[in-house]
Amino acid sequence: MSETTRNTEIKKEEFDYFYALIKNWRTILLISSCFLLVGLVSLFVTSKTHSSKSTFSISLNSQINTAYGSYNLKTLNPMHYLSFVELNQFENNVLAKVDQEGLTDVQFKIEEEKPVTSSNNLTPVYPNKFELIVSGNNEKYLNVINDFAIDELLSFTDKKIQTDMLNHFSSTLTFDIENLNFSIQIKEELINSLKDELNRNTENRNSVVSKNNVIDSRLLNSLAGDEQSLVVSILLNEEKGSEHFQMAILAIEEIQLRKMKNELNRKSLLLKKLVDAERSDNLNDLFPQPFGDSFMSLTPSEVQFLDGRSFFIKRVAIFLFLGLFISFSVVLLRSYYSLMYKDKL
Fold it and tell me: What is the tens place of the pLDDT at every residue in 290-304?
């Protein structure tokens, strides 16, 4: 091993890291103080974050009664509907309504209060108390944004449920109308057939229809008990029994046809109202508002300062750590470099 290599190894063994740090304490103190000063200045220069918090309660019913029938909600947990608050679309809609689209660093957050349940309770218990937190740098508009956010939240969730109800009842009515049209078509064909048969039997009024033939008839068997008794009594009316029977059946069928057409008109009118409400974007006249009707404000929006003592200590500690880390690294690298290459300088 050469003399130069041996001397280098000796110098490496003799290098004392702790001594290097103690010797250059002024450099460490200077760099750390600079970083600490930068951290303190940043606390006063950077804008402080505030939040506006409001508390409210919502309890949903499993079934919603409407003029179109009952509708069962897909879920009874309000949080499943409120989670959209943290999406960018919700933020953009609220800021547009407040006319503050240029605001930055505005964030929306929903927090739920966990319900207290016992181990013996097998029925699921859903949260009904929530907090809407709006955080940002502009303290002046936070309460206004929070209030508009509550309105947008109720409007959006109610509209979503109402749209689901509209789709459900529209599809149900469309299906019923198609079935009624088909049933009316069958009923009209039957009535026309009865009229033709009645016209043919007019020429043979003296023909007698036996009681057994009448009872086995597809028309008589389709009638209710009271209607059967009425028709059988007509059949026993001597010569014109057959004609009276056919006229009675025809009258009953025509009454049923009118009922079906009235039901068709009613369902068509209901479907038309749904279509018109969807086009005009006004479903509140047809359906209840599940969120709006059960909403209860517990505390109004109130601005709070988020950057408190903990944040101050945390930021100062981060800058102080960076200062110490960088100063230690600089001192050790410089000392080691000077020791290793002192003979070459």
Answer: 898 888 988 888 877
